[in-house]
Design a protein that fits this description.
With 161 residues, the chain is an alpha+beta fold. The chain has helices at residues 9-27, 46-62, 94-97, 122-132, and strands at 5-7, 30-35, 42-44, 68-77, 80-87, 137-142, 146-154. It is 32% helix and 28% strand. The two termini are 27 Å apart.
């Protein structure tokens, strides 16, 4: 069951940061936020959008041994919000980027320096949630330097008359 309401993504990010803070503290990874002031709202299910941000933050800390993770939110244009989670982790080889959002697909542990695996459902679930909300999700990454997972969401009322 989906519960749609007006959602303040800055609040969602704050809740996600609070929910994952212990993971960052345990690894000694710094977590930063970079949220543009006065972001417009989006229409959606706050719990599902929280699930997306928590998943992206959890993945970022899992694959980052040192450095930082930054969760950002800004207006991409007048109709779209852009949310991103950037890490200084191990990165994702280009050959894997096309299918990491597919169900039960994971980058092999050898490719990711023996990192814990999981179910292979986190990113596909994120993709479905973002898609349901009229947005897109994608990754930009460089092996050895880190990754940035982005997702876009329509501004509440964008394109509606």
């Amino acid at each position: 069951v989906w519960h749609e309401e007006r959602v303040d993504m800055a609040q969602i990010i704050e809740r996600a940061v609070a929910a994952t803070a212990t993971l960052f503290e345990q690894k000694g990874i710094q977590l930063h936020t970079d949220i543009e002031p006065d972001l417009p709202e989006t229409l959606g299910d706050p719990n599902r959008l929280l699930q997306v941000v928590v998943n992206l933050l959890s993945n970022a800390v899992k694959f980052t041994e040192r450095g930082t993770v930054t969760c950002m939110a800004r207006r991409q244009d007048e109709h779209t919000l852009l949310i991103g989670v950037a890490d200084t982790g191990i990165g994702i080889p280009e050959a894997y980027r096309a299918w990491i959002f597919e169900k039960f697909q994971q980058v092999s542990s050898n490719a990711l320096a023996q990192k814990p695996q999981g179910t292979g459902l986190g990113l596909p679930i994120c993709r479905e949630i973002v898609k349901y909300h009229g947005g897109q999700i994608w990754v930009e990454s460089e092996v050895g330097k880190g990754s940035v997972f982005f997702f876009s969401l329509p501004v509440s009322g964008a394109g509606m008359n």
